[in-house]
């Protein structure tokens, strides 16, 4: 689980999902009154949002090799490997091409999940 430092109120953290918070008494041995940049610090354990996909399963169901899929989409086989492993999130254009090729919606292939 990651630890993120956020200044000001924890409510202003935007899209970061907070699971636990605790107020910290000092920064580098200094109290809050001695730090001109922070009136208060909050530390949060956070979960990251990541994009998962089922390109591998769709490719196997279509009886395509990685090379055949890459050629049909106009990318390299290494790109397909990275997408299937979850190391690379494709551009919107490539995601739409993938969905069109498999005759399904983008949402059926790509989804948002929480990484702990």
What is the topology?
Layout: E1 2-7, E2 17-23, E3 41-53, H1 55-61, H2 66-73, H3 77-85, H4 92-101, H5 106-109, E4 110-115
Antiparallel strand pairs: 1-3, 2-3, 3-4
Helix pairs in contact: 2-3
Shape: globular
| Largest sheet features | 4 strands, antiparallel
The figure for the number of domains is 2
Q: Order of SSEs, N→C?
A: EEEHHHHHE
CATH architecture of the largest domain: Orthogonal Bundle
**Portion in beta strands:** 25-35%
Poorly predicted regions are 1-28
Q: For this structure, what is the CATH homologous superfamily of the largest domain?
A: lambda repressor-like DNA-binding domains
Q: Identify the CATH class of the largest domain.
A: Mainly Alpha
Q: How many β-strand stretches?
A: 4
Mean pLDDT: 76
Please give a structural write-up.
The structure is a single chain. This protein has helices spanning 55-61, 66-73, 77-85, 92-101, 106-109, and strands spanning 2-7, 17-23, 41-53, 110-115. It is an alpha+beta fold and 116 residues long. It has two domains: 2-48, no CATH class; 54-115, 434 Repressor (Amino-terminal Domain), CATH 1.10.260. Strands 1, 2, 3 and 4 form a four-stranded antiparallel beta sheet that branches. Helix 2 crosses helix 3. It starts with a strand and ends with a strand. The relative contact order is 0.18. Mean pLDDT is 76; it is low at 1-28.
Task: Considering the chains and any ligands shown, give keywords for the structure.
single chain; 116 residues; alpha+beta; 434 Repressor (Amino-terminal Domain); 4-stranded antiparallel β-sheet; 4 strands; globular; disordered N terminus
């Amino acid at each position: 689980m990651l630890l993120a430092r956020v200044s000001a109120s924890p409510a202003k953290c935007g899209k970061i999902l907070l699971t636990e918070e605790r107020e910290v008494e000092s920064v580098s041995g200094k109290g809050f009154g001695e730090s001109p940049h922070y009136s208060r610090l909050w530390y949060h354990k956070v979960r990251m949002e990541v994009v998962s996909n089922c390109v591998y399963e769709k490719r196997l169901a279509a009886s395509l090799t990685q090379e055949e899929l890459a050629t049909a989409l106009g990318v390299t086989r290494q790109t397909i490997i990275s997408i299937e492993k979850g190391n690379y999130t494709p551009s919107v254009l490539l995601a739409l091409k993938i969905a069109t090729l498999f005759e399904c919606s983008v949402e059926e292939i790509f989804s948002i999940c929480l990484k702990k």
